[in-house]
Amino acid sequence: MAGKTEKKTFEKSLERLNAIADTLEQGNATLDESLALYEEGVGLLKSCNEALENAEKKLESIKKSEKADA
Amino acid sequence: MNTPVTLTVSQLNEYVRAVLDSTELLSDIYIKGEISNFTNHYKSGHFYFTLKDSAANLRAVMFRSYASQVPFEPENGMKITAHGRITVYEKEGVYQLYCDELIPDGVGALYLAFEQLKNKLSEEGLFDDDCKKPIPRFPQRIGIVTSPTGAAIADLMNILHRRYPLCEVELYPALVQGEGAPASLIDGLAHFDGKVDTIIIGRGGGSMEDLWCFNDERLARAVFACETPVISAVGHEVDFTICDFVSDLRAPTPSAAAELAVPDMKELKAQIADCGVRIRHSLESRFARCHERLDEIASRTAFSKPERQLEKKCEDLTNAEIDFADTWKRYCLAKRNALAQISSRLGALNPLGVLARGYAAAYKDGKAVTNASQLQTGDRLRLQFSEGQAYAVVDEIDT
Q1: Within 13 A of B397's CA, how many CA atoms are on the CB side?
Q2: Distance between CA B269 and CA B263 in Å, rounded?
Q3: B356 CB within 8 Å of a chain A CB
Q4: Residue in B154, B135, B134, B136 with CA at minimum distance from that of residue B144
Q5: Which of B67, B219, B270, B279 gets the highest tally of CB atoms within 10 A of its CB?
Q6: Angle CA(B384)–CA(B387)–CA(B392) in degrees, nearest 5?
Q7: Residue A18, number of CB atoms within 10 A of its CB
Q8: What is the reported pTM?
Q9: What is the pLDDT of residues B51-85, one digit of tens each?
Q10: Are B218 and B249 in contact (CB under 8 A)?
Q11: Nearest Cα to Cα of residue B168 among B187, B145, B140, B144
Q12: CB-CB under 8 Å, B303 with A45
């Protein structure tokens, strides 16, 4: 599962998250399915947040090195 | 001996006119002098002026048909050679020059030649805007054709280097005045044509004679034939030479040429920095939007209150339990009712119940007696009461 979410782009992860929320909110999934979906969703949220943080850190370091050059 | 003649004024004037008209020398003559009192009669189109030298004046008139051919503007002070014939204006008793051609002397002659060449080349299309090539915005190599001494090259080098040091600049030292100048300039163009991105040709300010080589026809054609774009920078702001007209761009001064030929590095740096800022801002707002979307999703109840999923399942279970209990209850009730119904039916059928109401059951030989005709007098009957029994003998029968 972890490997799958790494490959997914940020945008695809958001799509999947919305789909999971839709399914859970409709309430038609079985108990086991609901648990599995919830787990997947939490995992995706975590990886998306990490990806965003990494991007921001990278931007900061580029800014810093640019200032250093100038 | 001749006695003096007496003539009227008209006769005299007529006579003088005839004399002058028949004088060959005066019928086809060039007069050199300076124009003064010049009047261009707007309505008639005739020129009226005075030709003078240091000691004397001569009235002149040029009728419209000739005046309109003069390719320049005659001015007071202009030194010219006028062609025409001398005749007498009888009415006023003056002789004057009827002029049919004005030829400028010195600078004037140059100017005339300039106008004529300009018209000729213009008609050939050498000055057409369509033929002008755009000046490259970021030239890597610039060739300059000018004098190695003088202010022009110093200014050019200075400004080019300050504005855009990226660009290589090469000088072809050329003659910029005198007879050898056109050929030298043409060599310079040939030296650079096709090998640099932009050529600048020109020189600093000077008199019309000084700049004259830039009006050379061969030079003009060489500039026109150049594949590399040519910027012409000759003399001062107000001077225009043929080279200026035919080149792809005219600069009013050599300094201006440098500014037109290359961009300003400071401006470029500012533009790049500006791009950097815009890119950063757009990235930052992109990130912000991603955050928003992520937060939006995370706040959906499926993720923020996941226990609701379980709560729902619990509720389903509870409802199922209640349903099940209800159904079971109803089922038992139904069965109980059925049982009760049968019980009461059965109860109703209990023979002992009848006996309790005072009836007795009569048995003969162990069988129940239902009809009196079954009996004979003297039969022995057993009588069953609600409680206990007795024996009786039939006494009488009534059917």
Answers
A1: 13
A2: 11
A3: no
A4: B154
A5: B219
A6: 35
A7: 16
A8: 0.53
A9: 999 999 999 999 999 988 776 778 888 888 999 99
A10: no
A11: B140
A12: yes
